[in-house]
Amino acid sequence: MSTAEPGLADIQAARERIAPHVHVTPICRSALLDAHCGARVAFKCENLQKAGAFKARGANNAVFSLVEADARRGVATHSSGNHGAALAQAARGRDIAAHIVMPASAPAVKKQAVAAYGGHIIECAPTLAAREAALAQLVAATGAHVVHPFTDPRVIAGQGTVALEILEQVPDLDVVVVPVGGGGLLAGVAIAIKSLRPSVEVVAAEPAGADDAFRSFGLGELQPQNAPDTIADGLLAGLGELNFALIQRHVDTILTVTDDNIVAAMRLQWSRLKTVVEPSGAVSFAALLEHPERFRGRNVVAVISGGNLDPDGLPW
């Protein structure tokens, strides 16, 4: 796997490559939510993407970039859920095997999604070290090609296709708000936005209980993710080194949000937009609720990154 930084040309090529395999997701709006926020808010609904999250973009770009000799060995990754399901979905589209290392604590709904796409699940302890050790052991046994959830340039380029659609769908855009965990979506979106419309502000939103990106951005040096504690289970990963370098250059600011505001955002999106949003996907809208002065009177796109929510475990 190349470690070269992806650029706009890679994102544009990714869009062509994945077009047959993913959805162009819609923009949703609500006059009531506009009034609630004091801003004009458009929601980019990646919760309606294949496999229920933006991860389908990066996974499909990586899988369909593989030469045949690599593809035949199958693909492997570690994931708390959405990337694993997306990689399994992409692998099924190319008729190759997908091996997914998942923490035993991952939500059942996400394990079920991986299995539904034909992914082979290997459970491990809920630590990054355990995930990486299990993945290394798996690759040694199978020879599968690793597709990292967020530091792979092909994955970052695929995620950046979200921004190409946003710029076409919302031409009067002032600011885009993007969730950040490992940083693949944020890096890809920021590259595309700043390459094509540099006047648009790129804001990241992160749970206060898993704020390594916020600390890293503020200190100018990559900080560890220490004992994250947040309802947003998809944003527990630490920021990747490649992603951090891209974020430093292309992102304007990072805001943190409380779990209470994440739940409030989920509930408002459920009641007003009639759309299902998982906690990690709601942090972008939570940023508008928690920091309204940053967005008042502006044209905002909040990226809903995923909708893989367990209906039996609603946080209200």
UniProtKB/TrEMBL annotation:
Q: Which UniProt keywords apply?
A: Lyase, Pyridoxal phosphate
Cross-referenced CDD domains: Thr-dehyd
Q: Which InterPro entries match?
A: TrpB-like_PALP (IPR001926), TrpB-like_PALP_sf (IPR036052)
Instruction: Please list every transmembrane segment annotated in the UniProt record, as residue ranges.
Output: none
Superkingdom of origin: Bacteria
Instruction: Give cofactor(s), names only.
Output: pyridoxal 5'-phosphate
Keyword Lyase present in the record's keywords: the answer is: yes
Residue ranges of the Tryptophan synthase beta chain-like PALP domain? 19-306
* Gene Ontology molecular function: ATP binding; L-serine ammonia-lyase activity; magnesium ion binding; pyridoxal phosphate binding; serine racemase activity; threonine racemase activity
Swiss-Prot/TrEMBL GO biological process terms: D-serine biosynthetic process
Q: Which residues form a coiled coil?
A: none
**Similarity-based family:** Belongs to the serine/threonine dehydratase family.
Per its record, how is this protein called by name? Pyridoxal-phosphate dependent enzyme
